[in-house]
Amino acid sequence: MAKRSITIAGHRTSVSIEAPFWQALGEIAAARAMSLAMVIAEIDRDRPQGINLSSAIRLSVLAWFREKEGGSES
Question: At the N or C end, where does the chain have fewer CB atoms within 10 A?
């Protein structure tokens, strides 16, 4: 588990997720030409109520790679 502090909408918060998820977030940010903080802010904004940010990040990473994998089969 790796914990990092980030700023979302002007507020500092800490996020704890496994190192491979941080790496995957970095890949997503690079692919989308966004900063890591921007990607996380977008996930935070779009997450369903009742899901914590760490879980939302994991689900978002999974969805992104599934979509990427599915898109390559077309």
Answer: C
Q: Kindly report whether the global pTM for this prediction surpasses the value 0.85.
A: yes
Q: What angle do CA 46, 36, 74 make, to 5 degrees?
A: 70
CA max distance for the chain: 41
Specify the CATH number for the domain of residue 68.
Answer: 1.10.3990.20
Terminal Cα-to-Cα distance of the chain (whole angstroms): 35
- Is the model more confident about 74 or about 60? 60
67: domain range? 2-72
